[in-house]
Specification:
about 210 residues
Amino acid sequence: MIRHLLLACLAATPALAQEATPTPAPLPTPRPDTVQVALVTDQGRIVLELERGRAPITTANFLRYVDGHRLDGTVFYRTVRPAPDFGFIQFGVQNAPKRVLPPIALEPSTQTGVTHTSGAISLARLAPDSGRGDFTINVGDQPSLDADPTRPGDNLGYAAFGHVVEGMDVVKRILDATVDPAKGPFKGETIAAPVRIISAARVAKAGSGGGT
């Protein structure tokens, strides 16, 4: 009887040892290569986290405007609000000759994986590869701005390249700004008292040694 019990315990030992071995924890997903930029406006601060790793061309273009102080003194000049708490705001150099840089290649969402969810910053454009120094920030998810190869015609969408990580309250306040129906090229969408960007500069990310 004792011999049978001993054999049973020995037979069970490998299984018990197997159960006691902890399952290795999965490795953490590496954080994408990002950089943060703060827009200090006369309505408050907006911090953007830009997807430098996934959208390198569009991010590098925006950083050229930031590092060259080309956005300092520009304004949020347009609000498009088709429904409450939904739409986008637009800011940038408005093709001012002393501020604007050459256009860049379009990086569609199908290439970058960066989509037009709420808070996304995107490069404004007309035709593909025409985007320069004017940008939009979404309020509300807007997948219609993403690339969609199933659509006819120009289906490349717009180039989202980051998201707001601080200051969506400021973004929404600008979205709700009063418009002048007779002012500017965007009838019914031009902000009556444009919101001034005092400065645009890189900032250090939390837990990092710098924002470069």
